[in-house]
Amino acid sequence: MAKASSRPDNHTATPTDPNKPDLSWRERLSALGNLPAFFRMVWQTSPGLFIGNAAIRLVRAAMPAVMLYIGKLIIDEVIRLSGLSGAGDTTYLWELVAAEFGLAILSTALGRATSLLDGLLGDLVTNRTSVLLMEHAATLDLEQFEDATFYDKLERARRQTTGRSFLLSQVFGQVQEIISVGFLAAGLAVYNPWLLLLLFIAVTPSFIGDNYFNQKSYSLSRSWTPERRELDYLRYVGASDETAKEVKIFGLSGFLINRFRDLSWQYYTKNRALAIRRASWGTVLTALGTAGYYGAYLWIVARAVGGTISIGDLTFLAGSFRQLRSSLEGILLQFSSLTQEAMYLQDLFDFFHITPLIDSRDKALPFPNPVQQGFVFENVGFKYTNSERWALRNLSFTLEAGEKLALVGENGAGKTTLVKLLARLYDPTEGRILLDGRDLRDYDLDDLRRNVGVIFQDYVRFKMSAGINIAVGDIDERTNQPRIEESAQRSLADTVIAKLPGGYEQVLGRSFAKGVELSGGEWQKVALGRAYMREAQVLILDEPTAALDARAEYEVFQRFARLTEGKTSVIISHRFSTVRMADRILVLEGGQLLEIGSHKELLEHDGRYAELFQLQARGYQ
Ligand SMILES: Nc1ncnc2c1ncn2[C@@H]1O[C@H](COP(=O)(O)OP(=O)(O)OP(=O)(O)O)[C@@H](O)[C@H]1O
């Protein structure tokens, strides 16, 4: 299968290309090609349940034909006995009745057993798919997550993680029905093979009709993925703890609800039009099937009246024909919904086929320990995929090993982008970054990430315990309580946590029962603790003190200076009291390097840094 990537330039059209609303028969059949991979996944989930399910279904498949045949034998025996005027031996008759009763009980029991196994297996498959999805998502790039088409794929794949149990019982049921039909058809063919032909002719119209409408509804639902995502988003924004504050203050609920109502109504009307057409055509086409059934019934009754077949044969044939028709209709209808399901499955596999663009090379180098020379930016330029503008351009500078560098610049100057390149969340669009003389891309990615610790300004507030919120800096050490507490002390989070009713076990945020919310500055202290958890050689803090009060900021920096002694560090800050502590300061403007030097040098230079510094200093006078 072609590898799909989130980059528009090498995006390969898959059989389910969203820009192509109607899918051909060939594409739909080729979607069935996903079933083996799906079953491999089911098999790997639980071979025992898989085999059990298949075995029971095989037995169940033979039941309808056997029961109909026993019914025929019973009727023929009753007629034979009634012709003997009372004195016949009824043992055989009772044996037959007992056999039919036994089969009826067995059939119900097996029916229950299959739903049970389907349910259990379905749950396991759902869990496994979710795990696979999360595992795969973890391998992908930040850049891919920021791409809307990627998000649509992820969204479609996410929907596939639930509801797969339905496909499972559907395919299992389908195979069972096909075997069942085989048994019944064999019985019917013994009497008259033409009946089979009549049967196929009767069920074909409704099959074609249903296929057509399934395809339409798949295309509709697929082409509406972005809108459905927007609906989910509106539902979330309109009713969530994180947004409630602003929604209330700005009185946004009316606006959000109306937007939701308009969009959902549009989708509803499109769906309704399709559903009405489907129901109308379905009625007409099914009537054709009924006509076919009665045609065959006429023939059978006429043969029975003419004496060519027995009354038992009549019931067997009529029963078989009726059962066959409904089974065949079932199979054919299921087939079209099966291809539809298989197409949805394609979405899941498409997602699994997206490959990360940022990865370790073969024979990647280990991260130098310790870093000898440091980083060199050589004419680095970077453009976000979804943007035409250069976020960084012509950037050349060195970050010496052990140096503390501060990044300064106005909003949107490219500071965060620069540190993302340093942590290899992205690769430069042009130029290169060297570490100890080798391209950053030559180093093992996991090793690099372990050695470069970044605390972003939009750090995540995990709705988990305070301890875990610090331990995420080095999650393997989450049970190392002394280390967590030491990190908390350094980042000043210890006093915050001491006030929490549950201490380090206290769940933060209000999403879960007993969760406690922190203030912005308190959260920042907790997040800062992550930097101290990580024994990284390079530490990057992106506006780590923006929410801190003046005293806390001062203390944090005293400690930070001590912690980063001998380490390479980069700090982004808009506060010059923080910035001036750095060895050198790099001033960015519009993605370009404007000035670089120590605080003193830059003040003497009397350029942009001096201007911004004096601007801020004047504010304090
Ligand atoms: N994910 C993204 N996709 C597209 N463009 C982006 C993305 N992130 C940032 N940009 C753009 O890149 C430019 C640089 O952004 P960056 O976040 O690096 O600025 P910054 O200097 O850190 O700003 P601030 O001081 O506001 O945090 C901005 O023009 C921004 O709009």
What is the secondary structure topology, with strand pairs?
Blueprint: H1 25-31, H2 34-45, H3 47-83, H4 91-139, H5 142-145, H6 148-161, H7 164-191, H8 193-223, H9 225-238, H10 244-249, H11 253-305, H12 311-352, E1 374-383, E2 390-400, E3 404-409, H13 415-422, E4 430-435, E5 438-439, H14 445-451, E6 452-455, H15 466-471, H16 481-490, H17 493-498, H18 520-533, E7 538-542, H19 550-563, E8 568-572, H20 576-579, E9 584-589, E10 592-597, H21 599-605, H22 608-620
Parallel strand pairs: 3-8, 3-9, 6-7, 7-8
Antiparallel strand pairs: 1-2, 1-4, 4-5, 9-10
The structure holds adenosine-5'-triphosphate.
Adenosine-5'-triphosphate is lined by residues 146, 384, 386-387, 391, 409, 411-417.
Domain ABC transporter: 375-615
Transmembrane segments: 279-300
InterPro entries: AAA+_ATPase, ABC1_TM_dom, ABC1_TM_sf, ABC_transporter-like_ATP-bd, ABC_transporter-like_CS, P-loop_NTPase, Type_1_exporter
Description:
It is a single chain. This protein has 621 residues and is of the alpha/beta class. It has two domains: 25-352, ABC transporter type 1, transmembrane domain (ABC transporter transmembrane region fold), CATH 1.20.1560.10; 374-462 and 526-620, 3-Layer(aba) Sandwich (Rossmann fold). It contains 22 helices and ten strands. β7 (538-542), α19 and β8 form a beta-alpha-beta unit. 30% of the residues are buried. The structure holds adenosine-5'-triphosphate.
